[in-house]
Design brief:
The complex is a heterodimer of chains A (about 290) and B (about 270).
Chain A lengths: L1 E6 L2 E9 L9 E4 L6 E7 L11 E8 L2 E5 L1 H7 L6 E9 L8 E9 L4 H14 L1 E9 L2 E10 L2 E7 L8 H4 L11 H13 L12 H14 L18 H14 L12 H4 L6 H10 L1
Parallel strand pairs in A: 1-7
Antiparallel strand pairs in A: 1-2, 2-8, 5-6, 7-9, 8-11, 9-10, 10-11
Helix pairs in contact in A: 4-6
Chain B lengths: L3 E9 L2 E9 L9 E4 L6 E7 L11 E6 L5 E4 L1 H5 L8 E3 L2 E4 L8 E9 L4 H17 L1 E9 L2 E10 L2 E7 L21 H13 L12 H16 L23 H13 L1
Parallel strand pairs in B: 1-7
Antiparallel strand pairs in B: 1-2, 2-9, 5-6, 8-10, 9-12, 10-11, 11-12
Helix pairs in contact in B: 3-5
The chains are: A alpha+beta (about 290), B alpha+beta (about 270).
Chain lengths: ~290, ~270
């Protein structure tokens, strides 16, 4: 999609590309009996009759079962005009924007005749270590977004409204009178974090569930039976210090290391779940 | 009270802490449901078999997947459950990484983990984890299964509580190298300075509360209007601003920067 970044009187034409894709295996609904595709049909709950799309209005529930009704035209009138402008309102220190507010990400490519402006905005953001905070309209909806440089590219990431964050004091458990962790427990936990510390390499994490779903489809296509999973159990830790010590011992002996050291051959470096037998062994030790 | 989305345990080494997962963001969007315009009755969706033209109860619906050679493979709910990774009730911490090393584009949805249970052991283990993770400046990486899908998660700390963010897998992120950035030469020092000065003029501290969700406000106004009169005024377009300026071409970029700077300073 073509858009224009505007700040003060400067206009930089850009192209918006989604930065992420979903690789989740998607299914469609089918009737188990005959393999027929399932169609969704709209029915009026009052008349019990199918309703064509043209006769649909949108209702916002204002009280139980009571709706404020908006026709498609009325709804369209409430939508912003899609002027495809990324209007930067201000520039804020890069470190100030909490990552928890980041929502959907887009790569901004250069637009027609915008190469110089693109490079200039990118370089100036790098130099000032600031993000542009912008309003932009996409899919009939105005959103707040941050424009930031990353790997030589301008990235736009929508921002959740500040009031969308749950106030943590509303969910925090009541103050408890549990004993504070001891210095020894803390020290062991720190050592364990240190032992498990590594450079972040996103490619070391594969979507195993996706692989399993695809394997399952293959099995089924080959007419094989599918084993149903067995239930799992886990028990809370009673003796914190003993569990920490056992965890550290396990790391030290390296008998059950889940991964090779960083930099080793790729398959060994993948993060795999412990096998069921290893998991049982682990239970036995605790 | 926050809705619990998942019950399970957080496992770190041989420590198991029973936890509950609750959402860290609330949906404040104005939601609509489909109504029959004529009588205002809610619309309901019914599932019909395209082959038979008959309504199909929910428990007779399976998951169809079209293979590359065009044949359809159908899985039942139970069979699909078999693909759930073995541990659907555990977040297994696999590694600790520097929080700053995680590309924000990988971040998906934020949640909060709360201790489940009031026993001394649970509370202490939770507190220990929160304290040492916070002190380390790192986040824990693990996996969680939510709604039959496995997610990579980062576990950090916010205000003393364990904060979980689901992450996308690396192959769900498009490479930045695919983006055409135009390959313009480095801007001249004078141009860069002018741009930096302009950014300086438009600088502010980040205050998310200053930005209200105008989209939501507009829909709320429309709903309020519909309630009274069932008729909307002509669109409220004061917010979007009108007209998009044309591209600022390279040659006059400096002039525009100077003019903008003068205006911003006036």
């Amino acid at each position: 999609m073509n858009a224009t970044i505007v700040f003060a009187g400067v206009a930089v034409p850009v192209k918006l590309h989604t930065a992420t894709t979903s690789e989740t295996v998607s299914f469609h609904e089918v009737h188990l009996k005959d393999g027929g595709r399932i169609e969704h049909r709209r029915f009026c709950t009052k008349e019990d009759k199918e309703v064509p799309y043209e006769e649909i209005a949108k209702g916002h529930e204002i009280a139980d079962g009571e709706y404020a009704v908006l026709t498609k035209e009325q709804l369209a009138a409430a939508m912003p005009s899609g002027d495809k402008t990324i209007r930067i309102e201000e520039f804020v220190p890069a470190g100030d924007v909490a990552p928890i507010l980041f929502d959907k990400g887009y790569h901004l490519g250069v637009g027609e005749g915008g190469a110089d402006g693109y490079r200039l905005l990118h370089d100036a953001l790098v130099k000032t270590k600031r993000f542009g905070i912008a309003f932009f309209v996409f899919h009939d909806r105005e959103r707040l977004a941050a424009v930031r440089p990353q790997d030589g590219v301008l990235v736009l990431q929508t921002l959740r409204p500040a009031d969308a964050l749950v106030a943590l004091d509303d969910v925090r458990p009541d103050a408890d009178d549990a004993r504070a962790p001891t210095a020894k427990e803390r020290k062991m936990a720190e050592q364990l974090i240190e032992a498990l510390h590594e450079e972040f390499d996103p490619t070391a994490y594969e979507d195993e569930h996706r692989e399993l779903v695809l394997k399952l489809i293959e099995q089924k296509a080959a007419g094989k039976d599918i084993d149903l999973p067995e239930p799992e159990d886990s028990e809370p830790t009673d003796d914190l210090a003993a569990a920490l010590q056992a965890s550290l011992d396990e790391r030290a002996h390296g008998g059950r290391r889940r991964r090779a050291n960083t930099g080793k051959a790729a398959p060994a470096a993948k993060h795999r779940r412990a096998s069921p037998s290893a998991a049982k062994k682990k239970k036995g030790q605790s | 009270m926050a809705r619990v989305m998942w019950n399970g345990s957080l496992s770190f080494g041989l420590i198991n802490v029973p936890v509950q997962l609750v959402g860290a963001v609330v949906d404040r969007d104005v939601h609509f449901r489909q109504l029959h315009e004529k009588d205002g009755a809610p619309i309901e969706t019914r599932r019909f078999c395209a082959e038979e033209g008959k309504e199909v109860p929910f428990d007779q619906i399976g998951h169809g997947f079209e293979t590359e050679n065009g044949t359809q493979v159908v899985l039942t709910d139970e069979e699909l459950d078999a693909a759930a990774p073995r541990k659907t009730r555990t977040i297994d911490i696999e590694a600790f990484v520097d929080a700053a090393a995680i590309d924000p584009l990988l971040l998906d949805h934020p949640y909060v983990l709360l201790p489940a249970g009031e026993t001394d052991g649970v509370r202490r283990a939770y507190r220990l984890l929160a304290e040492v993770i916070e002190g380390s400046g790192r986040v824990a990486l693990g996996r969680v299964v939510l709604r039959a899908k496995e997610h990579l998660v980062a576990v950090g700390v916010r205000e003393g509580l364990l904060a979980v963010t689901t992450m996308r897998f690396h192959d769900e992120l498009r490479p930045a190298s695919d983006v055409d950035t135009g390959g313009a030469r480095k801007p001249s020092a004078a141009k860069l300075k002018a741009a930096v000065d302009l950014i300086g003029e438009l600088s502010a501290d980040w205050d998310p509360d200053r930005y209200e969700d105008r989209h939501r406000k507009r829909l709320e106004a429309a709903v309020a209007g519909a309630d009274r009169t069932e008729h909307l005024d002509d669109g409220d377009d004061d917010a979007a601003g009108s007209g998009t300026p044309g591209a600022t071409a390279g040659s006059d970029l400096m002039d525009v920067l100077k003019a903008s700077l003068a205006k911003a300073r006036s």
